[in-house]
Amino acid sequence: MSTNLLGRGSRLRVTAARARHRFGTWRGERPFWAGLFTSTAGLPILYWPYANLDLAGIPLAMSTTSGAGALIIGVLLIALGLTLWYQPHLRLFAGIATLLLALVSFPVANLGGLFLGLISGLIGGSLACSWTPVATEPPTAPADCGSTAVPAGEGRRGN
């Protein structure tokens, strides 16, 4: 019975290692952190306009007339974060849209979700705009270009 448990435990470790490796490969092929920051930016923007807090017996309501704007901005930021994960070729569009929505959330959605959504959105949009896919093979020189090597003993100045 103990050999059966050891076999099951090692299979579980192998399965977990393979899943972790597949996730690492998937994460490396797309702007993962940009999508995470962008999706996370939508949460505080969505939360604060609809939160009813109680501060020492005094109700504190952050609800404003901009609740609809906060709802639209929050949902769009979450959708852009998912777009960055599942459509990485749209990273530039999603990054610029994230930056614009994060900036618009400052006056519209309670200071950008009390600055939490604003800062997270600016980081996510910046990461999305700066991310580039990993090159699978090195770029090759075009066939019609000649060699630009300088022969030994000659300088580039042409003296």
Identify the notable features of this structure and list them briefly.
single chain, about 160 residues, mainly alpha, two-stranded antiparallel ribbon, 6 helices, about 65% helix
Structural class: mainly alpha
Overall 3D geometry?
A: flat
In DSSP terms (H or I, runs of 4 or more residues), the helix count works out at 6
User: From the alpha-carbon coordinates, what is the Rg to the nearest angstrom?
Assistant: 25 Å
Structural description of this entry:
It is flat and about 85 Å long. The mean pLDDT is 83. The relative contact order is 0.15. It is mostly helical. The protein has 6 helices and 2 strands; from the N terminus they run ααββαααα. It has a two-stranded antiparallel sheet with strand order 1-2.
Structure summarized in a few sentences:
This protein has 159 residues and is mostly helical. The chain has six helices and two strands; from the N terminus they run ααββαααα. The mean pLDDT is 83.
Give the topology, please.
Blueprint: H1 2-28, H2 32-47, E1 52-55, E2 58-61, H3 67-86, H4 91-108, H5 110-114, H6 116-130
Antiparallel strand pairs: 1-2
Helix pairs in contact: 2-3, 2-4, 2-6, 3-4, 4-6
